[in-house]
Design brief:
The protein has helices spanning 17-27, 32-40, 94-108, and strands spanning 8-11, 51-55, 61-72, 75-85, 113-117, 129-130, 136-137, 147-151, 160-163. It is α+β, with helices and mostly antiparallel strands. Strands 1, 2, 3, 4, 5, 6, 7, 8 and 9 form a nine-stranded mixed β-sheet that branches.
């Protein structure tokens, strides 16, 4: 467990790529999520400025949040995935800081909607609500409470089926 930090979040730079991969590898049981990030970097779903890191006191990335293009039916939307924090820094606010920074950056870029498939007790604090309540679903089985969405503007969330970028494999 790391000491209490005042976290800094910023857009990822090319110098961060190795540290981001290390963070994502450390945070998950398999390399699938780290490989997904590497593949998304070269995919049309990648949006410059929406890959964010949280850095430790030395400036080394220890937290990560990625927003890439997906669609709800034909409506351009963002997908928040993956989110990762190095285990040595989990439960210190590093994840929350990087998520909030990425969502703020997306809103500044004029993005309107974000989806996430994640822990139903964690993501509501960032404004996510159950996607099914808005008529949003996916084509594969997931626990209803784990699929969430939010509007970054006053526009209502569209209903429909989420279409992820090809690297997600769904």
């Amino acid at each position: 467990m790391s000491p209490h930090w005042t976290w800094t979040a910023r857009p990822e730079t090319t110098d961060d790529i190795d540290a981001v991969r290390e963070t994502v590898l450390a945070a998950f049981e398999t390399p699938l999520e780290a490989d997904l990030v590497d593949t998304l970097r070269t995919d049309e779903a990648w949006i410059d400025g929406l890959s964010y890191v949280t850095t430790d006191a030395t400036g080394t990335p220890v937290g990560y949040a990625l927003l890439t293009r997906c669609h709800i039916d034909e409506v351009p939307t963002l997908c928040l995935a993956p989110v990762a924090v190095h285990p040595a820094h989990q439960r210190t606010g590093a994840g929350g800081t990087v998520i909030e920074a990425a969502l703020t950056a997306a809103a500044r870029l004029g993005e309107r909607f974000v989806t996430v498939l994640g822990h139903p007790a964690y993501y509501p604090r960032f404004g996510f609500t159950r996607a099914s309540a808005h008529g949003i679903g996916v084509t594969f089985d997931v626990p209803d409470e784990s699929l969430m969405a939010q509007a970054l503007t006053e526009a209502p969330l569209p209903s429909g089926t989420i279409r992820y970028a090809k690297p997600f494999g769904v």
